[in-house]
Amino acid sequence: MPARGPLAALTVPGTIDGWRLALEQSKQNFSLAELLAPAVALAKNGIAVTKNQSVTTCEKLNTLEDVHGFSNIFLSNGRVPQQGERMVQSALGNTLEAIGLYGTNFFYKGDIAETHACFLKDQGSPITLQDIQCQKAEVLKPLSIQTSSGKLFNLAPPTQGMSSLGILGIFDRLNVKQPETFEHIHGLIEATKRAFIIRNAKLGDPAHMEYPPEHYLTDQYLINEAAKIDFSTALSWPYEPKDGDTIWMGATDKGGISVSFIQSVFWEFGSGLTCPDTGVFFQNRGAGFSLDPGPNQLAPGKQPFHTLNPAMALLNDGRVLSYGTMGGEGQPQTQSALYTRYAQFGSSLQQAITMPRWLLGKTWGDATTTLKFEENFDEKIIKLMRGVGHEVELVPSFSSIMGHAGAVVRHKNGMVESANDPRSDGWAYAC
User: Where are the beta strands (DSSP E) in 102-237?
Assistant: First the structure.
C-alpha cells in the first residue's frame, strides 16, 4: 500500500464529525467556536516548534518534501525548522474558525468539502465529494475485561484496543506476583506476542471479522492463551510493524467525568498531502489496509485496521485510571508496562511512566525487528531475557521509540493526580 502522497490519502477525515458528536453527547453549554478559539489563535499567531517536531521533520523529509503542499507548511524557507522557531498556519486557522462559526457540516457538506474534493481529485486521490459528504461519526460501546486489579476498557475494532486488553488479560492469568522480575517482563512480552498473533490474523473492519472481538476476550480464551506461554523459551517473532504519529491526552473534571483521548494522522505528517487553501493535511490511514485476503483487505467502504486505543480502567478500590500513549505498535506494550507497574504492583503513577521500557518489533523506520530495551534497564533482566532466546537490542534511555505515555487518576475521595512521560514534549498540569 502507498504510504505517502495522494494514493495514501484514501480514507475520509473523521475527526471533525467526531468533535460534533462528542459535544452533543457531553450536553455541555460550550459552543464549537469557543472550544476551537485557542486552536485558531495558535494556528494564526504561531506555535513554537518542538524538539520532536524538528527531529522528526529532518528524519522523514526525504519521503515528504516532494508531496504537494508539505514544504510550504512544514518547512521554513525550504529548510527544516529548528526548535523554538515560530510556525504559523494561517489557512488552517481560517478553516478552524469557519468550522466554529458554521458548524462541522461546513467541513463535510459546505465550501470546505468542495474545496477538498477538487483538490484531492486534482492530486489523484480516490476520495470523492460523495465520500466526504457521507462521513458520519459513531458512538460505540467499548470492549472490557475483568482482571484481578479492576475492570479495563478500550476501543473495539478496527482499533487494536482488543490487543491491549488481551495482553493484560493474558498476563493477569499468569499470576505473576513480583514486579520488575523476569516473570513480569517476559510474561508481558510473551502475552504481547499471543495477542498480536490474534490481531494480525483476525482483526480488521468489524463488519468483516470472522468472530466479534469479545470472542477473543472471554475468560477461557485468555486462560488458553496464557497456558501457551513458556517461561523457559521465547516465542520467535518475525512480525514487522509500521510507523506512527500519534498523541494521547487524558483529563478529569470536578464533576467526576474522566476522558482518555487519542488523535493521530498515522505516519509522521500522515500522507503529507496538504491543501494550500485550507491548510489541512490528510492522514494516511489507508496504508493500514492489506492486499492479502482477510478482514483487513482493501475494499470500497471498509475501515482499515489502526493502532489507536485510548485506555481506561476502574480499579477495585474505586480509582479511575485514564492512560495511553503514542507509538503505533508500541501502544499496547507501553500500556501494559504502565498499567501493571501502577495498578497491579503499586508503583507511583510517575514512576510507572518514567521507568525503563521495552519494545517488541520494528518501529519509527528501524530496520530490525528485535526486542528493544532502554539501556538503563536492569542488566540481570537483560541477561535472563537473552538466555531464553529473546533477540535483545539496547537503545538509548528515554528513547522516543518507547512511546510518549501519560495518565490521569481520579481517586475515590476526589483527589486527582497526573503524570507525563519525560520522553515527550507533553505536560501534566491542573487548571
Answer: 143-146, 150-154
What is residue 265's predicted lDDT score, i.e. its pLDDT? 87
CATH level 2 (architecture), domain 143-243+306-420: Orthogonal Bundle (1.10)
If one counts every other C-beta atom within 10 angstroms of the C-beta of residue 48, the result is 11
Burial of 37 (C-beta count, 10 Å sphere; 0-12/13-18/19+): middle
Residue corresponding to grid cell 477525515: 13
- Side by side, which strands form the sheet with 371-374? 358-360, 371-374, 392-395
> Start-end ranges of CATH 1.10.246.130 in the chain?
143-243+306-420
Question: What's the DSSP call for residue 43?
Answer: H
Distance of alpha carbon 422 from alpha carbon 36, whole angstroms: 28
Written as nine digits, the cell of 56 is: 522528526
First to last CA, the chain: 44
Question: Comparing C-alpha atoms, which of 176, 170, 265 is closest to residue 224?
Answer: 170
Q: Maximum Cα–Cα distance for the chain, whole Å?
A: 62
Catalytic residue among 159, 246, 274, 325: 246
**pLDDT classification of 255: cutoffs 50, 70, 90:** confident
Q: From CA 401, how far away is CA 365, in angstroms rounded?
A: 10
Cell numbers given for 137: 461519526
Burial of 322 (0-12, 13-18, 19+ CB in 10 A): buried
Handedness of CA 37, 38, 41, 46 (dihedral sign): negative
Answer yes or no: 233 catalytic: no
What's the angle, vertex CA 211, arms to CA 208 and CA 217, rounded to 5? 130
The closest of 337, 345, 320, 352 to 422, measured between CA atoms, is 352
Mean pLDDT on 68-97: 95
Least confident of 136-145, 155-164, 213-222, 357-366: 357-366
What's at 327, amino acid-wise? Answer: G
| Residue 280 region by backbone torsions, left for phi larger than 0, else alpha for psi between -120 and 50, else beta | beta
If DSSP codes are grouped into helix, strand and coil, which group holds residue 154? strand
